């Protein structure tokens, strides 16, 4: 999984809920199973791997099951950055690998007054999710990932450093790619991240998911 740019398998959440200022306590969390070893706990910016089922609170009907998607593989997504609805970003904080939760999310932290017709979610729907978390990994924009790529420790990523990192990642996952894929991805990374056009990706340009000091 290339941490800079390659696509993540996202949960189905093309819309953010209305009322984004709602308090976290509006999400009701019931812990169904808590393993004895609970480490590391999830935090904003972490890359999570989870299965989940979604139900309408009004009648209990299931509107989504991750096990029937993507050949049954658990979903990968980055926590706390809007890749899922706000209620799930809140509900899955401080969760440990192996933990199971049942969470109830109000409309203001789900799909609001508009609903989500494609997902068979009506307007003003309260949602219930049953979640099983499998893995908590350092996210793609973590300090650790930056330092891993920054071989010379100058707090900025050169084209050579990122090129080398891509080669290592491609070798690690073993997938066959067209020879041009490396150059295309490298060019796209700089196009989307080198905002000042100086030929380097600075810590500030890179570190969009967390605000750790580098």
Automatic annotation (TrEMBL):
Keyword Translocase among record annotations: no
All copies of domain EF-hand, residue ranges: 137-172, 181-214
Any one GO cellular component localisation term in the record: endoplasmic reticulum
Keywords assigned: Calcium, Endoplasmic reticulum, Glycoprotein, Isomerase, Metal-binding, Repeat, Rotamase, Signal
Pfam families: EF-hand_7, FKBP_C
PROSITE patterns named in the record: EF_HAND_1, EF_HAND_2, FKBP_PPIASE
Keyword Signal: yes
Domain PPIase FKBP-type positions: 45-137
Listed EC numbers: 5.2.1.8
Domain of life, per lineage: Eukaryota
EC top class named in words: isomerase
Name used for this protein in its record: peptidylprolyl isomerase
């Amino acid at each position: 999984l290339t941490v800079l740019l390659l696509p993540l398998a996202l949960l189905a959440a093309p819309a953010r809920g209305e009322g984004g200022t709602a308090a976290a306590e509006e999400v009701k969390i019931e812990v169904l199973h808590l393993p004895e070893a609970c480490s590391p706990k999830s935090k904003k910016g972490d890359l999570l791997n989870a299965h989940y089922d979604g139900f309408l609170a009004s009648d209990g009907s299931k509107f989504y099951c991750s096990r029937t998607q993507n050949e049954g593989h658990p979903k990968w997504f980055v926590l706390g950055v809007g890749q899922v609805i706000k209620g799930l970003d809140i509900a899955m904080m401080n969760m440990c690998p192996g933990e199971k939760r049942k969470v109830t999310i109000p409309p203001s932290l789900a799909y609001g007054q508009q609903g989500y017709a494609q997902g068979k979610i009506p307007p003003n729907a309260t949602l219930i999710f049953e979640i099983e978390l499998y893995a908590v990994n350092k996210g793609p924009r973590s300090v650790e990932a930056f330092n891993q790529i920054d071989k010379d420790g100058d707090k900025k990523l050169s084209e050579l450093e990122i090129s080398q990192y891509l080669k290592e990642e491609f070798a690690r996952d073993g997938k066959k790619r067209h020879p041009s894929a490396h150059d295309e991805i490298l060019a796209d990374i700089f196009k989307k991240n080198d905002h000042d056009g100086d030929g380097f990706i600075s810590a500030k340009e890179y570190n969009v998911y967390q605000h750790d000091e580098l």
